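Severity: low
Component: inverse-folding endpoint
Summary: output formatting inconsistent between runs
Steps to reproduce: submit the following structure tokens with default settings.
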């Protein structure tokens, strides 16, 4: 397949069709299809064109575009090179695709994707649930298929020195550049001025969307203002270079009445599908009749490739006048045999249906659908960066999910084929809980996918020698372990058994959130029962009457083949108990083995450290990602506050800083639940987002560095846009700061607010069992307001409360930073000359010695603003395992004039700073020496 960068030319080996402009119509009536089948260059006499308009002007006068790009709702790149590899994307939960920096077409930015494909990276377009047989390197196991790129609308100047603008046009040719992702409206808008080699300049504005109101539809509008007169050609392309793991099928690429289509089948899985595009000319475009022209391609050259055979063009040539604006729109239809018996006909129908609606009507319905989604939102006033990160995370999950879908969500959603686009525990554990709290109708697709794939799960269990359901660690179209799971060395496909606990927990959580007994009966119960049967058969009885689950791998993928993984065992016991409860609700019998195994499973625990052991015999080795800390949340495993605090601190300190992005989000949630004196929750919140945000669109990288897990030999390039990390980050707000936990008959809330967010955090549109409510966390009080549904029962530390319409509940906001202390630096504002990612200045004064500031160099300076002048006494630095060679502590009243303290003096000061000098000599093996770390800077007030 040809994956090289090139600009499509008129002689490409693909079906080429040329179309005229649509006839002028009464604006009150939809436009009909183009009357003629066109296959020639359209040349017309120069006709009066529309008056000139600025290319970057909002497309409507009603302020819709301004609303889409209001502060806090849009992210903008001002250079085509600013995005790096983190290109914009659109998605409607069924259809998604990347949009390259030039705003249109196919692009391959370079580098490779991560595990397991590790193939050249590209801007792909994907359909939810469309899987194919993977390449040879995957031994034929499934990977998500990619469609021909559908966003292409290239522009060519006419005349002797004709030149084409495309996705491959070099940045040096572009000025006045802006690319904006509207999170509120689900669009990508790119405006720029393109100057051809002969000096002719053209203003171009592209708007791309995947229609939220019609899942099988997408659209691209081009508005062009040439600063020259002559002839222009716009080429609408379905570009086969973007296709992966599909091959041509059905009629040759082509079409009629201004619509072209490409039919395909997926490799191996043989699912039929099609992409269609209808091009309509709008304001200012006038063209004459067609001249037939033979189809370019194999008949002429005798050569063909899969990419060419999956490509179709149609072109419109028309006269233009300088400083006048011309508009063209392509309407895309996509369908497959997964949702239609006749996918090509369905795709063409969707394309023409969208074209008949027209851009104005289509975008109005599309925006309305997005507005409805944003009724649930998280607001952090006065925190523009944090607000943009939150909204980017919400946008990522919303773009990948859809009500009524039969499919789940892969780690990067519909943005790439990272992780082969397959389904992992990421969906249930990291993306699902935040969605369930805000959009239970979207979250349902994640648990329904497991119901849909239960037949394969049953067959997997039977083949492995177990009863019940055994879900594949990575799964695609059906969930078959041997044709879809990729991780056999180490054998995670067989040992990552905690997935069964994750799925069971998610199913039970859906019932708690909705109390949908019909769903529990028909879909939830078969999954809960099947997983409980699996655990009862998977556990082995020990001589002392206890039970063990042997030869497993927990979420920590550095530990494989261990016995009695604590998260695995606790998840198994929880699944057995939830299944028993569901049986009681539905009047079903409960097998005796469920209770016996649940009550007697071994839960490794170190009484000396008061820490739950990750597995039997765990010796304190580095772990890849959150594992044991998941006992507290989401499992809610019973333990004392002392046990919870000790377990959190122990494993946070033993986690690989180069591990996947989601770990610190659960640290933040656990920290918020504990509410230990200080502000470590905010440190973990920052660690959960700042090291991973990339590019102007605040996309998420899977890891801080070049690979996800320094100790994982299989880890490749970090995945992006990493929705797993985004989902975990959102849970810090939905479940961490609010303390939200759902029960059968009430909602538990226990709000906490770090001092850095004293301006408040508001969660709008939370859902529970038919109620909709808002939670507004203030600096000292939290208000819970019911906006729809019957009265809401709350369980809080202050007692039970009932919230009804017009009668909100007011709770105390926990503020651990205000706990009494002799340390005047605790939770004060701290800055530093440099910081390693995740080791920020604030960590040195958050009251928790597990977190630390580490400069991003051997030497560094940390400055703490105490907020007011106090008489400073003893200043004590607490170091990490890497101490500095030397350090110096100074104080200042004004932040400009600094003096030493002598440690024993009584120094009036508002500012304290510490200058550290680390080792510049290489470490053993020639590696750079680790930088010194300051775990806590304790500043005592003089007595």
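Observed output (run 2 of 3):
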């Amino acid at each position: 397949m040809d994956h090289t960068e090139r600009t499509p030319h008129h002689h490409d080996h693909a079906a080429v069709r040329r179309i005229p402009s649509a006839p002028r119509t009464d604006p009150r009536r939809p436009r009909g299809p183009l009357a003629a089948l066109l296959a020639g260059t359209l040349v017309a006499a120069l006709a009066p064109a529309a008056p000139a308009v600025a290319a970057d002007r909002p497309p409507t006068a009603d302020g819709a575009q301004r609303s889409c790009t209001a502060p806090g709702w849009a992210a903008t790149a001002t250079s085509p090179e600013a995005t790096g590899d983190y290109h914009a994307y659109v998605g409607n939960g069924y259809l998604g695709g990347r949009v390259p920096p030039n705003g249109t077409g196919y692009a391959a930015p370079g580098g490779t994707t991560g595990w397991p494909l590790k193939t050249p990276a590209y801007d792909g377009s994907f359909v939810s649930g469309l899987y194919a047989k993977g390449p040879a390197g995957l031994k034929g196991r499934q990977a998500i298929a990619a469609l021909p790129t559908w966003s292409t609308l290239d522009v060519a100047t006419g005349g002797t020195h004709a030149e084409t603008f495309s996705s491959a046009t070099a940045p040096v040719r572009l000025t006045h550049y802006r690319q904006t992702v509207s999170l509120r409206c689900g669009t990508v808008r790119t405006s720029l001025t393109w100057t051809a080699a002969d000096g002719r300049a053209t203003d171009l504005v592209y708007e791309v969307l995947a229609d939220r109101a019609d899942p099988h539809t997408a659209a691209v509008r081009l508005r062009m203002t040439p600063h020259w007169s002559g002839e222009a050609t716009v080429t609408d392309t379905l570009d086969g270079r973007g296709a992966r793991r599909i091959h041509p099928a059905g009629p040759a690429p082509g079409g009629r009445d201004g619509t072209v289509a490409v039919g395909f089948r997926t490799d191996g899985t043989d699912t039929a599908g099609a992409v269609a595009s209808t091009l309509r000319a709008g304001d200012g475009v006038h063209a004459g009749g067609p001249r037939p022209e033979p189809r370019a391609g194999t008949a002429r050259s005798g050569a063909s490739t899969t990419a060419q055979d999956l490509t179709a063009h149609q072109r419109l040539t028309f006269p233009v006048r300088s400083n006048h604006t011309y508009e063209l729109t392509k309407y895309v239809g996509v369908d497959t045999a997964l949702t239609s018996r006749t996918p090509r006909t369905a795709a063409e129908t969707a394309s023409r249906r969208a074209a008949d609606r027209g851009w104005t009507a289509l975008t109005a319905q599309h925006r309305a659908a997005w507005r409805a989604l944003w009724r649930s939102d998280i607001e952090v006033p006065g925190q523009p960066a944090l607000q943009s990160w939150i909204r980017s995370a919400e946008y990522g999950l919303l773009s990948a999910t859809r009500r009524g879908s039969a499919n789940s969500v892969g780690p990067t959603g519909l943005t790439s084929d990272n992780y082969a686009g397959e389904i992992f525990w990421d969906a249930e554990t990291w993306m699902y809980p935040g969605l369930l709290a805000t959009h239970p109708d979207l979250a349902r697709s994640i648990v329904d996918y497991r119901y849909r794939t239960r037949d394969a799960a049953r067959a997997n269990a039977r083949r492995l020698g177990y009863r019940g359901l055994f879900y594949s660690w990575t799964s695609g179209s059906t969930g078959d372990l041997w044709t879809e799971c990729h991780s056999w060395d180490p054998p995670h496909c067989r040992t990552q058994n905690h997935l069964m606990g994750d799925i069971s927990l998610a199913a039970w959580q859906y019932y708690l959130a909705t109390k949908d007994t019909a769903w529990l009966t028909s879909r939830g119960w078969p999954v809960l029962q099947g997983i409980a049967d699996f655990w009862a058969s998977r556990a082995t009885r020990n001589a002392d009457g206890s039970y063990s689950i042997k030869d497993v791998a927990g979420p920590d993928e550095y530990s494989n083949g261990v016995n009695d993984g604590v998260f695995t065992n606790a998840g198994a016991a929880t699944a057995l108990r939830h299944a028993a409860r569901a049986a009681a609700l539905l009047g079903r019998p409960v097998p005796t083995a469920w209770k016996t195994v649940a009550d007697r499973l071994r839960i490794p625990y170190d009484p000396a450290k008061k820490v739950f052991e990750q597995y039997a015999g765990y010796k304190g080795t580095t772990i890849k990602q959150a594992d044991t800390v998941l006992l507290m949340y989401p499992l809610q495993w019973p333990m004392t506050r002392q046990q919870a605090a000790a377990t959190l601190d122990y494993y946070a300190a033993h986690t690989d800083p180069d591990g996947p992005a989601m770990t610190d989000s659960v640290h933040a949630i656990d920290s918020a639940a504990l509410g230990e004196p200080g502000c470590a929750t905010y440190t973990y919140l920052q660690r959960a987002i700042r090291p991973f945000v990339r590019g102007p669109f605040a996309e998420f990288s899977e890891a801080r560095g070049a690979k996800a897990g320094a100790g994982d030999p299989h880890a490749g390039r970090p995945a992006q846009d990493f929705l797993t990390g985004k989902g975990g980050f959102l849970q810090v707000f939905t479940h961490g700061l609010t303390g939200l936990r759902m029960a059968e008959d009430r909602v538990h809330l226990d709000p906490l607010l770090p001092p850095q967010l004293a301006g408040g955090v508001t969660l709008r549109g939370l859902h529970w069992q038919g109620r909709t409510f808002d939670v507004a966390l203030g600096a000292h009080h939290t208000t819970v307001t019911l906006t729809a549904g019957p009265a809401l029962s709350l369980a809080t530390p202050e007692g039970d409360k009932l919230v009804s319409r017009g009668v909100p509940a007011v709770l105390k906001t926990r503020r651990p930073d205000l706990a009494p202390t002799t340390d005047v630096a605790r939770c004060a504002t701290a800055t530093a000359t440099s910081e390693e990612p995740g080791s920020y200045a604030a960590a040195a004064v958050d009251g928790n010695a597990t977190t630390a500031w580490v400069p991003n160099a051997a030497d560094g300076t940390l400055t703490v603003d105490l907020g007011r002048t106090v008489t400073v006494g003893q200043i004590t630095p607490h170091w990490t395992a890497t101490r500095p060679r030397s350090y110096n502590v100074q104080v200042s009243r004004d932040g400009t004039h600094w003096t030493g303290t002598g440690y024993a003096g009584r120094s009036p000061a508002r500012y304290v700073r510490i200058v550290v000098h680390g080792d510049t000599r290489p470490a053993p093996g020639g590696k750079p020496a680790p930088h010194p770390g300051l775990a806590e800077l304790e500043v005592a007030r003089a007595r």
